Amino acid sequence: MPQGEPRAAVGRADLAAFGVEMAMIVTLAIGGWRLGSTKLVHITLAVLLPALAAVIWAVWMAPSSHRRLRDPERLVGQIALIVATYVLAAKTHLVVWGIVFGVVSILLFALTRRTPAGKGTEPG
């Protein structure tokens, strides 16, 4: 965020979006662990998958990023990460969790775009 630019207030949608982001990181870690066939692969995937998602989010989606994508590209990127997380959850036998996570996440990120600007409800 450029200096001198006022910070938006943190609203309920912001907190819910942050919760979705944290759920995505946890789901990627669990899914990564379940994908591995050896202890080393379990650990590597459980660390690298959430780290990769966190870096992508920090660079292109975070409110404080200088490279933050504009909508609708940011929404498409968020949905792509959510879908990838769902696919990993389904592949690792977390189908119900993946469906709930995917539907709630996509609805939240899509609906927060419909809130009037300046209300502090745009997700990270």
Question: β content, as a range?
Answer: under 5%
Instruction: Work out the helix count.
Output: 4
Please tally the β strands and state the result.
Answer: 0
Rg over alpha carbons: 15 Å
Instruction: Give the overall shape.
Output: globular
N to C succession of SSEs: HHHH
Provide mean pLDDT, rounded.
82
Give the SSE layout.
Layout: H1 12-35, H2 39-60, H3 73-91, H4 95-112
Helix pairs in contact: 1-2, 1-3, 1-4, 3-4
Kindly list the characteristics that best describe this protein.
67% helix; single chain; mainly alpha; 124 residues
Report on the structure:
- This protein is an all-alpha fold and 124 residues long.
- It is built from 4 helices and no strands.
- Helix 1 (12-35) runs antiparallel to helix 2 (39-60) and helix 3 (73-91) runs antiparallel to helix 4.
Short structural summary:
By secondary structure, the chain is mainly α.
